[in-house]
Amino acid sequence: PGPGGAHEALDRASHYSEDSIKIVHIDKTNEPLGATVRNEGESVIIGRIVKGGAAEKSGLLHEGDEILEVNGIGMRGKSVNEVCDLLATMTGTLTFLIVPCNQETIVPRTTDTGMIHVKAHFDYEPDEDLYIPCRELGIPFQKGDVLHVINRDDPNWWQAYRQGEEDQTLAGLIPSKSFQQQREAMKQALAGGDTGSKEKTKRGKFLCAKKHHKKKKKKSSSATGTLSDESEANEPVPTYEEVSLYYPRPNCKRPV
């Protein structure tokens, strides 16, 4: 932004009573910005920074920051859906007015040393998941798919790439092992009942356009059937199995 834009942002910042307001400029393409938001009262708070997005690469936005304005448009009082619909239409340089989160509560960034590889034991379609904080970012997968999990900081939602799609810049969201086990256990307890109305909840959304994934062919419908009543209630529901990737040594030849 030119000097005029910077001066305008400074002038708008002076209208707020907060002691510390930060002006942040981030270039946004048609790709997702890489952050989810939530409402706390009238405020719009950054709930998650996703690896690979513009927000994460800039290092200027953090979980817990409050968004006061974007390009001169006030965010306070707006719902999560209103904020995300607005930001989805914006491209170019976005100017944020931010109330930084208390520095003591900012969690240091994790590194790739925590990556694990898991094989899924269930089918997952984010468009049908009312709990996911951002359907547009969810990764669809089928039983047997291998997922590379790169971030497990959130107890309910892991950040991951699907096997064969590691070249994608932005990670996606999948339900964590514990969260999925809780949901499957609840399904068992309520087997035969209509739980759809109970799953409605206010979800966070992604500050972005839709993240596209290649659709896989659907397997037989039996794979998505409800769990059998004969399942042992005390046994943990299989969700993910941690696996190790084997890379053959370059000089090791297979016998023929």
TrEMBL record:
Pinpoint the SH3 domain residues: 113-184
Task: Pinpoint the PDZ domain residues.
Answer: 23-102
Molecular functions per Gene Ontology? kinase activity
User: Matching InterPro entries, A to Z?
Assistant: MAGUK (IPR050716), MPP5_SH3 (IPR035601), PDZ (IPR001478), PDZ_sf (IPR036034), SH3-like_dom_sf (IPR036028), SH3_domain (IPR001452)
What stretch or stretches form a coiled coil here? none
Renumbered to this chain, region (Disordered) spans: 187-256
- Which keywords fit this entry according to its UniProt record? Kinase, Repeat, SH3 domain, Transferase
Q: Which segments show compositional bias classed as Basic residues?
A: 200-220
Put simply, this protein is called: Putative calcium/calmodulin-dependent serine protein kinase/membrane-associated guanylate kinase
Q: Which organism is it from?
A: Rhipicephalus microplus
Q: What is the lineage of its organism?
A: Eukaryota, Metazoa, Ecdysozoa, Arthropoda, Chelicerata
